[in-house]
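BUG: 3D viewer hangs when loading the predicted structure for this chain

Environment: internal workstation, default settings.
Expected: structure renders.
Actual: progress bar stalls at 90%.

Input used:
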Amino acid sequence: MTATEARQTAAGTSDATASGDGSLTHRQIMLVFSGLMLGMFLAALDQTIVSTAIRTIADDLHGLDLQAWATTAYLITATISTPLYGKASDIYGRKPFFIAAISIFLVGSIASTFATSMYMLAAFRAVQGLGAGGLMSLALAIIGDIVPPRERARYQGYFLAVFGTSSVLGPVVGGYLAGQSHILNIAGWRWVFLVNVPIGLIALVVVTKVLHIPHTRRDHRLAIEKAL
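Structure tokens produced before the viewer hung:
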């Protein structure tokens, strides 16, 4: 084998490694990751912002003793929906469900902005949770689809950076917004939810354009055993 052929072979091996499953290059994987990270940033930032501003929100809605409802409703629906997204996306593909998760999360965020009681806020936060469950689980599932096990740690570092950034920005942004009486004639705490809208819209556009991954249908059967 000549030196030129050796270099070509090495380059081909490098490209195959960077492409994850052999069908995507490193650049394509990073484009997909840009959409995934925006989705995860949306969910992670919302949790840290709301947890900082919830006391102010409860005071304004005269429901201090009900503030746990808003947090609990979000966590319950997010937990329940997580495995459902995984199962459905195995059968029908990741992209439509990831887009649906972002859309549901945005609907819940906009609705939460107009809440007039803690019960309403809890209900709208439950809608947010339905979307958040998909944002987290599908992002990790897509990693498994496009990146081989030996390369995943390299890319998961980007997700750790997303969570680190949200944990720093969230409390700062949440505290600032909650501390403002009004911004553009809208109560400051309501911007805690409105801030999700531009981020979510950007995520929708990016995911729609770049999330093109091959899908292999995986059918599932539910076995129900009767206890005698």
